[in-house]
Amino acid sequence: MSVKTSRDGGVLIVVIDNPPVNALSAEVRRGVRDALADPEAEAIVVIGAGKTFIGGADIREFDQTPVEPHLPDLLLEMENLGKPVVTALNGAALGGGLETAMAAHYRLAAPTATLACPEVKLGLIPGAGGTQRMPRLIGLAAASDLIANGRTIGAEEALKLGLIDRIESGDLRAAAIAQARSMIGAAPSRTGDRTVAPGEPVAIKARGRIAPQEAIRLVALSAEMPLAEGLAEERETFLRLRRSPQSAALRHVFFAERASAKVEGLEGVAPRDLGVIGIVGLGLMGAGIAHAALEAGYRVVAVDQSTEIAAKGKERIEDLYRRRGTPGALDRLSVSGNLGSLARADLVIEAVFDDLDVKTTLFRRLDGIVKPTAILATNTSYLDPDRLAAATAHPERVLGLHFFSPAHVMRLVEVVRCAATAPDVLATGLAFAKKLGKLPVVCGVTEGFIGNRLFSAYRDETERLLQDGALPQRIDAAMEEYGFAMGPFAVFDMAGLDIAWARRKRRNAPRVLADTLCEAGHFGQKSGRGWYLYENGQRREDPEVTAMIAAARQDSRDIPASEIVSRLLAALREEGKKLLAEGIAARAGDIDLVMIHGYGFPAHKGGPMFSAEQPDE
After folding, report:
1. 304-341: burial string, b at 16+ Cβ within 10 Å, e else
2. Active-site hit among 27, 42, 68, 119
3. Considering 79, 99, 295, 414, which one is annotated as catalytic?
4. What global pTM score does this model have?
């Protein structure tokens, strides 16, 4: 039974028990409907089992034939009930869970409860009254902010906004029963009867996403029409968005993230326990990794070449904490200029200069320092981790953990399975990344792994587009219109053109136009000139670069934006197919995740592999 009931006098206690997240499946909805109809109940308390109140709808039902009772109808029935309904938010109240709470007549929450309407992240809007009831509780500005951004808030903020009535730090269930009993005989206070306070919805940057714009529109309508009309408009919009390509793409991303956690060969393999994380190299990447590990609750031992350099690294970590971080986390940090400090580390991550000799020497030294059970991880972007592993006495304890910069912000981590990596070592890398709040994607060994191989193919096609007649600003505009936050040339300038230039020289790679720019001192934003000219904080076309491009062309033609987009997407897809054929990536969804979370591919397009299968591509 996914809905369990019991009685405390005239109060009927309804427990939602549908693990893992108490989703509002058809069975749960039927159970709640039956409870509402109980003739002996004088008041009702709804609470979740475990650590979740209700985690939202069952997304698996979205592509199936709808089954009654529909959630909007059920919640309207709850709101109009002639007896009091109290919701006790014992944990996360997400999507339909928060909509259930808003339809009740009183809302209590545990101090640890979290609340959100995250439907926009699936290309949807709340479909069971969220856009109409929330503004009646907290106003247009706050409601539009929470719904259009899918923002999660804690109990304290929810109380301050008026989304809940009380925080109960004691026995939540007992408090909810007492509250329900106190309301017996009184007319229920219905959210739908309230008027919306004067105000304006917030402005948002939708970047081509439809759902946030529709959320703003519907929230605004709550102040202009009765509840019944608003609910009807909301339902029509929800159903329309559910059929949209954007929602299909975002649901693909949702399920791809779930699938990425299933790694062949790790069935039943337990990760090792980690307490102390060692980090070697305290530049921007190492400092970011240290910040992420500290925030996850680990003790961190951070080491650099000397005491002086290590002290500067500590300043970088402290600077990150001045911007954001948990108070007291720095108490778990120790910094040293001596590799011997890593003797107690359970996992050591190197983030030193990306040079094979430098990293090989480091791993050999660590062999004689760390304990036998310690894991060694490389953060290399391009080097062969199998060669690093082979240089150690225990290659089975080596893997790649490729973080993306800035490491304390970017969600993606490529977890590289080397030829000799032991299953429990790989499982530990995955568990570590998840504890950091990251999205780990397992990949095999190849130059650049999944992400940088894709990005290299993307960069190569931009060079061909330049040769064929397009200019950087035209290419960037086309990709930004498609949905990227930044076009490729703006990204190249931000990252620095000299980094890829140095790598091409080391590999004796064929000459490209970017080499000419670097030889002229165009290194990107940091030098004031790259593919663009940077003056007074503004980016504009550089006539010198335009002349360089024209001089390098054999022929030229006008290239429409549609061709720019199709060629760049095709380059990504073709490289993705190669990664799958070589076994570097396990599934097409993993490739999509890497591009979305590592390189800014618009999530509402689903990724390069998913979009290839869509009729509009």
Report:
1. beeeeebeebbebbeebbeeebeeebbeebebbeebeb
2. 119
3. 99
4. 0.92
d(CA 357, CA 469): 41
Q: Which residues make Cβ contacts (< 8 Å) with residue 216, sequence separation at least 6?
A: 144, 148, 201, 202, 204
Positions in the chain whose pLDDT score sits under 50: 617
Quick: pLDDT tens for 51-79: 999 999 888 777 777 889 999 999 999 99
- 406, 384, 405: which is closest to 395 by C-alpha? 384
User: What is the rounded CA–CA span in Å between residue 322 and residue 42?
Assistant: 53
Amino acid 369 reads: I
Known active-site residue 99: yes
Side chain identity at residue 23, one-letter code: A
Compute the distance between CA of residue 136 and CA of residue 125 in angstroms, rounded to an integer. Answer: 17
Amino acid at 561: A
Cβ pair 385, 584 in contact under 8 A: no
Hey, how many other C-beta atoms are within 10 angstroms of the C-beta on 161?
18
Structure tokens at 185: 């005989």
Distance, in Å, from the CA atom of 181 to the CA atom of 8, rounded to the nearest integer, reads 9
| Per-residue pLDDT tens digits for 419-450 | 999 999 999 999 999 999 999 999 999 999 99
User: Tens digit of pLDDT for each residue in 209-224?
Assistant: 999 999 999 999 999 9
CA distance 425 to 421: 6
Q: What is the pLDDT of residue 617?
A: 44
Question: How far is 142 from 149, CA to CA, in rounded Å?
Answer: 11
Residue 542's pLDDT is what?
Answer: 94
119 in catalytic set: yes
Distance CA(115)–CA(122), nearest Å, equals: 17
Burial class of residue 524, CB neighbours in 10 A (0-12, 13-18, 19+)? buried
In the numeric block, the tokens 């545990």 are attached to: 110
pLDDT for the residue numbered 194: 96
Q: How do residues 83-108 score in pLDDT, each as one tens digit?
A: 999 999 999 999 999 999 999 999 99
Taking alpha carbons only, the member of 92, 94, 104 closest to residue 14 is: 104
